[in-house]
C-alpha cells in the first residue's frame, strides 16, 4: 500500500482520518507515489481553530523575531533545494532544472519576507493641526488561506504563506491534490525553522474542502491561483461571505514579433517560452503575433520547435516533461483535433508522442499551428500544453488590438529593436505583466504580480500576491501630543477623539 500524505495541524504531521484518498501519480510513468486524503471537514475546522488560537500569540511576536525565523527558513530551503526539487519533479513531471527554478523563485519570496520590518512600516505626518500628528500602523488580519494549483508546487505556496505569516497572520494551505508532497516538504522545513505550532497548517483535498474553507466564518483572507472557472467561483463565494479574496486565473499570453527584432533571439525565446514546462505555465507564450515581414519566419520557427523533445525529469537532455494527467492530455489532443477541423494549418502535431521506457506517460510533442484566427477553439481556450499558435498582423496597432480583445490578460511580450514600438506597446497594451525582449516577464517578489480581465479577480487590496497590503489592515491614528495651551505638556500618545 502506498504512503499516505500527511496533514499538518497545530505543529503535528498526522494521518488524516479521511476514508477517501486520491492517487498522487508520477505523470511520466503513472506510478502511484502516494495517496492524498480528502481531508475530513471536521479536521479542517480543527486546523482553523488551532490557527485562530495561534494568531493570538503569533501576532505579538516582535517583528525582528518574525524576520529571524524567516531567515532560518530561507537557509533550510536553500540547503534542501535539491531534495525539494526532486520530490517536485516526480509528482509534477517537470525537468529537474525547471524544478530547481520553481523552488528558487519561492525562496526569493521568503527572502522578501525577511524584510518584514521595513515592509510593515506605516506612514507619518507631523502637524496635521496645531500639535497634532497623524500616523498609521499596518496590522495582521487573522487566519488566511492559500489554495494553489499543480503547476508550480513550490513557488506558488511560497508566494502566499510566507508573506501572510510574516505580517503576523496564521495560515491554512490547501495545495493542489496533484502535487501535495512538495507542499508537505515545505511545511516540514517551516516547522524545523522553529515557527510556533498552529501558525502554518496544511490540509488536502479538492472541491468540497475548498468550499468548506470559503464558507468558514473564521477565515479573513483567501489567496487563490488556478484556472479561470475556479478562480471566478472562489472570488464570488469568498466575497459573498465578505472575505478578502485575490484570485489569479488562467491565461493566453501573446508575443508580438516585430520585423526589426533579432530573428534568432525571437526563435530561441519562442521555443522555451511556449513548450518549456510542457506549456503548463500561466505565463507561457501560447500565441506569437507575427507583424509584417516577420511572417516569413514561420519555417525557421517550425524547424527550431521540431527539434526539441520531452522526457522524464531526470533526463538532462529533455526540453520538458509530461502533462500532469490523462485529463490534461485528452484536452490537448481534443484541441489539436479541433485545430484541423476549424481550418488552422497544423505545422507540427505532437499527438502521437512517446518517450522510450515511459510509454505510459502523458507526453505530448511540440505542436505548432499557423493561420490561426480568434474564433478557433485553440485560440479561445487555454491549451496548457506544448503548443504554439501563429497569427498574423500587418501593423503593431493590429497586434495590440488582437491582444486587448483577448479575454485573458496575464502576460505578454514584444520583441523589437525599436524604442518607439516598445514604448507604444507598454503604454497601450492591457495586460498585467509585460516583457520587452523578455518572453516570460515574471516580476521578482518586491514587485506586484497581477493580471487583467479574467486572469485576476480582486480588489484594491490585491496589489500583489507577494505584497503585504493584501494580508494586513491599516489603522490611522491622529494624536494630540500636548494639551493645546500647555507648552511642553505631557507626551501621552492618546488617540485624539476631537
Ligand atoms: P485548478 O483550478 O484545477 O485547481 C486549482 C486549485 O483549486 C486546486 O487546489 C484544486 O484542488 C482547487 N479546485 C479545483 N476544482 C475546484 C472546484 N470546482 N471548486 C473549488 N476548488 C477547486 O487549476 P490547476 O489545473 O491546478 O492549475 C492550472 C491553472 O492555473 C491554469 O489555468 C493556469 O493558467 C493557472 N495558473 C495561474 C497563475 C497566475 O498567476 N495567474 C499561476 C499558475 C497557474
Whole-number radius of gyration?
25 Å
The small molecules bound here are: nicotinamide-adenine-dinucleotide
Biggest sheet features: 7 strands, mixed
Number of strands: 22
| Order of neighbouring strands in the sheet with most strands | 14-15-16-13-12-18-19
Mean pLDDT: 93
How would you describe this protein?
Keywords: Oxidoreductase. It comes from Chryseobacterium paridis. The strands form 6 sheets. This protein has a 7-stranded mixed beta sheet, with helices on both faces. A 6-stranded mixed beta sheet has the order 9-8-7-10-11-21, with helices on both faces. Strands 5-6-22 form a 3-stranded antiparallel beta sheet, with no helix packed on it. Strand 3 and strand 4 form a beta hairpin. The protein is globular, with a radius of gyration of 25 Å. Mean pLDDT is about 95; it is low at about 490-498. With about 500 residues, the chain is α/β, with parallel strands linked by helices. The chain is built from 15 helices and 22 strands. The termini are far apart. The structure holds nicotinamide-adenine-dinucleotide. Nicotinamide-adenine-dinucleotide binds near residues 174, 177, 207, 227 and 248.
Topology:
Layout lengths: L6 E3 L2 E3 L6 E5 L6 E6 L3 H18 L4 H17 L1 H12 L3 H18 L2 H4 L4 E6 L2 E9 L2 E5 L7 H12 L3 E5 L5 H13 L7 E3 L4 H8 L4 E7 L2 H13 L3 E5 L4 E5 L5 H13 L9 E7 L6 H9 L19 H16 L3 E4 L18 E4 L6 H4 L6 E7 L2 H10 L2 E2 L1 E5 L3 H10 L4 E4 L15 E2 L2 E2 L14 E9 L18
Helix pairs in contact: 2-4, 3-4, 3-7, 4-6, 10-11
The structure holds nicotinamide-adenine-dinucleotide.
